[in-house]
Design goal:
Distance between the termini of chain B: 47 Å
Helix content of chain A: 25-40%
CATH superfamily of the largest domain in chain B: Thiamin diphosphate (ThDP)-binding fold, Pyr/PP domains
Number of strands of chain B: 16
Order of helices and strands of chain A: HEHEHEHHEHEHEHHEEHH
Shape of chain A: globular
CATH topology of the largest domain in chain B: Rossmann fold
CATH class of the largest domain in chain B: Alpha Beta
Largest sheet of chain B: 7 strands, mixed
Number of strands of chain A: 8
Strand order of the largest sheet of chain A: 2-1-3-4-6-5-7-8
Shape of chain B: globular
CATH architecture of the largest domain in chain B: 3-Layer(aba) Sandwich
Number of domains of chain B: 2
Number of helices of chain B: 14
Oligomer: heterodimer
Chain lengths: 314, 396
């Protein structure tokens, strides 16, 4: 069992996601990986479906992990993890290995989780393998040059949703809610949580709960992307925190079939505060911002944030 | 040698081999006709005859993903499919051979769509022929069992480490009963040692499997896989010899020849239809015709040298393709092009005629084989081979 970490100062010193990668300056997903690896520790196998955390990490035939890592296609992180889990279960039972059952953690992007990888993810959770599946959400297909994904927010510019006279808001659809998709309809699910790189202690402890769970656990981790969202590289944490403070992302967990809200901002800021520091929203008009506020309010209400949310204009 | 003969289908024979191979992880998904293998394995697991994880794949792509992860963890893994299921999993075949994971997939052939029937056609497996996997066809339930054991042994050899497609014709082999001598567990254990791979996912000895590389590293990576495939010829021959020693059944690894002594014309094909061809050849022999049958046992790696040497003995070779390869050279199929390539620059001129037959799962009838032998006889007699290929039954 991995103990809960009491304070950030008590976090383990050991690193298992180490220097030697080529992610962009200020990369949210890379910081996420470091925290996940630190929390999970040595007895961990990572599965890396194609995405930023494959391409930028493993260039030149090497990788920045001090634990085993295997590539999966962008389509099949859940399936590959299922195979590893089944193999360890069988080999331990048949005394073919003296290994301890490892933490088997998929670190997939939002495309590899909520879009092309969804079938594989859902199947793995339906079957109940003892694995952890992390969706690090930078809200786009980023390593291919910033294309829209199902988790891209309404109104965001991407190279597949450019704003123009005919489509003034750019991205027209509301994002998929991958955490809710996973929370409902997978009876074997043992633990689910959302987390943010803006709250590293909460993130690491959720990783540990996910590893400890005796069955499939899902983490949806918000990980801002300076390149894709067009904000300065030193603002990553600020943007991550603003997402929580404006209700664009909420921190909660689902444990023993009970939802628990982990963080409620003292005062919820309007979404205009969040979008003004990001170039991807710079084309939005007031009516679009209003629609985004409506979205944030709805998501907050779904997880029990009822009071203090910004009023909509009538 | 003591025998233990039981009557069973190709599917059940394959399942028996998987059990004897003490497979650790199996991943299933239903599609006819290969499903019979999986339902038999599911029964074996439920009845406690086989200790394995039986994972329910959500599709064929999922099946191959599961066995990829299992094999990379050091488990012996098995899966299978048919028809469009085989092509649905296409993305995952190259990563499996690229990471040198010697898992096995049984293919009981089925047509792609159209025609969407359940009939057998080799197109499904042949679509995947160039993915760095071992591939060959069994022509009987006994050979289906033997192929499974031999392929694990060859694929897991440290000099090889490549995955295997163990193919059998849908229905004609997968669902028709034949006598199968089931070996003892002791025999199989003597022939097939436990699977050991030096690069597996082990937290005590971390490795990184499948990193992205730079373009300059591509040629070397692919060349290594090429060398692994090319290096298999020797291993195939060694393993077949050892198989004969342990089990008492001797197969030529590459070609089975039937009544080819002094033959002028032969039919060349792979899989279960060879049995029909042999019947016809036998009858024609009784009538004094100099005919025979050559059955290809291993398609990948393609036995270029053996095909050239063997076929050089004859005047005319009729190559039967049981697949669609629209737009291919000579308007026939991939088997004809492979045979022609093997015979190119040969000292002796051998005429080849292509026959596309049995598509959509249709029988290749005795009558059709008689007609094919007629064509070959005529080419042998006149030396003229004007129409290079025939689609049956329309063009013959």
């Amino acid at each position: 069992m991995l103990e809960q970490i009491k304070s950030i100062k008590k976090a383990p010193k050991e690193e298992y996601y180490v220097p030697g990668h080529r992610t962009c300056a200020g990369c949210g997903p890379a910081l996420q990986y470091r925290l996940v690896a630190k929390a999970a520790g040595k007895n961990t196998i990572f599965i890396g479906p194609t995405g930023c955390m494959y391409v930028a990490n493993t260039s030149y035939g090497c990788g920045p992990w001090a634990v085993p890592w295997i590539h999966a296609q962008i389509t099949n992180g859940g399936g590959v993890a299922s195979g590893i889990a089944a193999a360890y279960k069988a080999m331990i039972r048949k005394h073919e290995t003296d290994a301890e059952y490892p933490n088997i953690i998929v670190v997939a992007g939002d495309g590899g989780s909520s879009d092309i990888g969804l079938q594989s993810l859902s199947a793995a959770f339906y079957r109940g393998h003892n694995i952890v599946f992390i969706c690090y959400d930078n809200e786009s297909y980023a390593n291919t040059g910033i294309q829209v994904s199902p988790t891209t927010p309404y109104g965001a510019w991407t190279t597949f949703t450019p704003a123009g006279p005919v489509v003034p808001e750019g991205r027209k659809l509301m994002p998929k809610d991958i955490a809710k998709i996973m929370a409902h309809g997978h009876p074997e699910l043992k633990y689910l949580a959302t987390a943010s790189i803006g709250y590293p202690l909460d993130l690491m402890n959720k990783v540990r709960k996910a590893c400890n769970a005796d069955g499939p656990a899902f983490l949806h981790i918000h990980a801002p992307c300076p390149k894709g969202w067009s904000f300065p590289a030193e603002k990553t944490i600020e943007v991550a925190k603003l997402a929580i403070d404006t209700g664009m992302f909420q921190l909660y967990e689902l444990e023993d079939k009970q939802y628990k809200l982990n963080y409620k901002p003292d005062k919820i800021k309007p979404v205009s505060e969040y979008i003004k520091c990001q170039g991807r929203f710079s084309h939005l008009k007031p009516e679009h911002i209003e629609k985004l506020q409506e979205f944030a309010n709805q998501r907050m209400q779904e997880v029990g944030i009822e009071y203090g949310i910004p009023q909509l204009a009538e | 040698m003591k025998t233990n003969i039981k009557r069973m289908s190709g599917c059940v024979a394959t399942a028996n081999a998987v059990k004897l191979a003490n497979v650790d992880v199996i991943c299933s998904y239903p599609i006819r006709p290969y499903t019979g293998i999986m339902s038999e394995l599911a029964r074996m697991v439920a009845d406690g005859e086989l200790d394995a994880e039986f994972v329910l794949g959500e599709g064929e792509h999922g099946q191959l993903s599961v066995v990829y992860g299992a094999s990379a963890s050091g488990a012996r893994a098995f899966t299978g499919s048919s028809g469009v299921g085989v092509t649905y999993a296409m993305e995952v075949y190259s990563p499996i051979s690229g990471e040198r994971l010697p898992l096995q997939m049984a293919i009981a052939d089925r047509t792609l769509d159209p025609p969407g029937d359940f009939g057998s056609e080799h197109t499904d497996a042949l679509c995947c022929r160039d993915q760095g996997w071992i591939q060959g066809w069994a022509s009987s339930p006994q050979e289906a069992l033997d192929l499974t054991l031999m392929y694990y042994r060859i694929g897991e050899d440290p000099r090889v480490l490549l995955p295997q497609y163990a193919c059998q014709d849908g229905y004609f082999v997968s669902h028709i009963l034949g006598d199968v001598d089931i070996p003892s567990q002791e025999q199989v254990d003597a022939f097939l040692p436990p699977y050991k791979n030096h690069h597996v996912l082990d937290t005590k000895d971390p490795v990184i499997i499948g990193p992205q590389m730079e373009p300059e590293m591509g040629p070397g990576t692919q060349y290594q896989r090429h060398l692994a495939v090319e290096g298999m010829y020797k291993v195939f021959e060694e393993v077949h010899e050892e198989f004969a020693d342990v089990f008492g059944r001797k197969y030529d690894p590459w070609l089975e020849e039937y009544m080819t002594d002094d033959a002028e014309s032969v039919i060349f094909l792979q899989g279960g239809h060879a049995e029909t061809a042999k019947n016809v050849a036998k009858h024609l022999r009784n009538l004094g015709e100099k005919v025979g049958v050559v059955r290809l046992r291993t398609f990948r790696p393609f036995p270029t040298k053996q095909v050239r040497e063997t076929l050089s003995k004859f005047k005319v070779v009729g190559v039967v393709d049981n697949s669609v390869n629209f737009g291919i050279s000579c308007g026939a199929g991939v088997l004809l092009t492979e045979v022609r390539a093997a015979l190119y620059n040969n000292d002796k001129k051998v005429e080849t005629v292509g026959f596309v037959a049995g598509l959509g799962g249709a029988m290749i009838t005795h009558d059709e084989f008689y007609k094919m032998f007629d064509v070959l006889k005529n080419v042998a007699k006149t030396g003229k081979n004007e129409k290079q290929s025939y689609w049956l039954p329309f063009e013959l």
